[in-house]
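Q: Joint fold for the lines below.
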Amino acid sequence: MIAIIDYKMGNIKSLENALDFLGCESCVTNQAQTILNADKIILPGVGAFDVAMKNLQKYNIMDSLNKAVFEKNIPILGICLGMQILVTVGEENGPTDGLGWINGTVKRFSIGDSKIRIPHIGFNSVDFEDKSPNLFEGLTKGSDFYFVHSYHMICENNSDVSSWTQYGEKFVSSVQKGNIFGTQFHPEKSQSNGLKLLKNFISLPRDNKQC
Amino acid sequence: MLKNRLIFTLIYNNESYMLSRNFRIQTVGDLDWLKEYYNFNAIAFSIDELVVLNVERKQKNIENFSKNLIQLSKNCFIPISAGGGIRSLEDAYKLLNSGVDKLVINTPIIENPELVSSLARTFGSQCIIASIDCKKEGNNYTVYIQNGLKNTGLTMDEVLQKAEKLGMGEIYLTSIERDGTGQGLDMELIKRAGNLTTLPIIASGGVGKYEHFIECMKNGYAVATANIYNFIVDGLIKARQSIQRQNIELATWDYDLQSLHNYFKKNNLIV
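A: Joint structure:
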């Protein structure tokens, strides 16, 4: 059973659709019991960093998440904003503390001299590294995934980065640290490429090394 | 590298899908038709995004609209944007819980700006698309709302600025005169908007030939099409191939749904 964290932040139905297609049982929840008994956890998210953190507190989800990830070693995948809030601090709508599981910050793309448009919207190539376990197993390097965001993550430790993407500058498009995974792109919205990645996440063994 | 976007727009009216010409609409078919005869789920593998616009003229029924979206979004793994009739945060939640990823807003930009900024604040700018419908008048473009029926008296330049200020994250720009005519996009309109904003722009209204995509995409704008040719079985597939032949970069995916199923089976990945 996959627990999709319900904290009123986004396109949860899209994620359910993808998991349904993959033949995987899921439930949308913010209940401690369900979260702690899940095989995997997905932290979705569309919205603003500060609102997301407030909602995690409001629905009392922080404790269950910390227990699930650090005591029970349940693999967790943060998607888009769900990945961004894994960091120490976010700057959207003023500095806000994140979950602090990955050392880093989240800041806005800067236009600078480049002619990029913000938000970064569309399919872009993802240059991944072969980590173990590898969420990109079976995919070609530079595969296209769908992005829609104005903020991006900056990691203190390059060892936490599992892929990079180019948009005006090179930015972190996914992270991996022990049983903690995050993608800036939306695998549930990236046609077969994304379904494959989700399938790889679902198929991860439970006894993944603690971080 | 960021790829260009080929976007398919479905016009929804009272549980049917429509063709639109200069904002006058006629029925193509209902959801069953779309799913079974048009084979929508397979077609969805030849587009980058889907936009669904509710153009009901009287009271827009958001309940039925979201029921349709729930069905439409099943087995469709691309971003779906929807709008028409969003008048409260509750409406927005309803659509986002129906398989929708981004919200398309038109009339409230003028008539309820507070709603628009609170949507952007709640769901993030990247979730809120400003749909701006324009008619050329003299040297300017005038913006219309309420399905193109009401003249706002404002220029496109002014509304664009307003949308940015309200925190909207993307522009869906339509030429009412070109809509459904197949005579080509209004490049003057699109370039003008492109120079005024750094938000991503989706150009709409007038695509009738493959060349029409190319000119616009070469300038870095996404293109939406709702043209009748799309409803000929492989219209969009051919459009995608033809764009790629012109060396315009579009996303590529390893598999369609059926071969993905086979891949999972072969590798014992079926849960």
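Q: Anything notable?
A: The first helix of chain B runs from residue 31 to 37. Chain B is about 35% helix and 25% strand.
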